[in-house]
Amino acid sequence: MANIKISKPWEDKNLKVTDEKVYANRRETIKKLGLVSSGIIMSPLGINNSCQNAKNESLKEEGKSIKALKNVEDNHFSFEGMMDLYPAARNEKYKLDRELTEEYDATHHNNFYEFIHPDDKNIYNVYKYIEDFDNRDWTIKVSGKVKNKGKYLLEDIIKKIGLEERLYRFRCVERWSMAVPWTGFPLSSLIKIFEPENDARFIRMVTYANPNEMPGVKNQTWYPWPYVEGLRMDEAMNELAFIATGIYGKPLPKQNGAPMRLVVPWKYGYKNIKSIVKMEFLKNQPETFWHKIQPSEYPFISNVDPVVPHPRWSQAYEKMIPDGETIPTLKYNGYGAFVGKLYS
Length: 344
Known about the structure:
The chain has helices at residues 20-33, 35-38, 52-62, 103-108, 154-161, 187-194, 215-219, 233-236, 289-293, 336-339, and strands at 69-72, 76-79, 139-144, 150-153, 164-171, 176-186, 202-207, 228-232, 242-247, 250-251, 261-263, 276-282, 317-320, 325-328.
């Protein structure tokens, strides 16, 4: 694609695509100015920046401004000026038959293998090891059978689509479960922006993987990093499929998959890929991370089903976090009215 200028907040609100080479040069500009290491935050209005003149000259060559970014609260992520989007209005169509899981439990019981530390035997302690993860200035690379290929700024996506809150059940293949208020937008709205070709039948999604920032990637070298998951196109276009950027009315913490993750509540948790950096539209079904490691235990579809056991345990019941209350597993995690027709 030709280079297209990213719209500024006071200009055209239509979503733009950043050429990959331009984006790479943009990051080099930041490094040369010393703004990452020094902690200086750049504003598109150029306020309170001692390097403003040098920055303006450099940016003039690129023909665009650098978005203002900042880390927020307890390892949360946000773009400057977007905190007023949280909490988002709740979509009352998506209701729950159970109480919400406490925020602390939902943000401290996370199985995110990229952050598992070799010296910690508790795989759910990943929240302790996310401090080196740099999730600022996030982009998603889009490729494959789509009209609009390129790199997209998450900030522009959010401004284009908007945010809403949905209450969803969450079911892990290991039988624990939660009830969570996610903030984000429908995956179908994002897909429409990319304009898939008629023969695009699957979406392959890829998680960020940097051994310098993620102890699990660095030390668990036997895994086929990066983490990869996928959906059929009809699944991805279903109204339940959701891209989450927040939780409990706040931006996502890093351990929950910041700054953007997939939420497909009728499937087991490992299908809900975190920290997405790539989406590829394909004609054929992609290989996925856990299926490649153990195909008999982690099929591509992986819908929640009480009568289909995992090879090593029954799926007939689940245990609510944190007290372990045992409840019967519902087919499609209780979302049959929304997705049952996809598998008839």
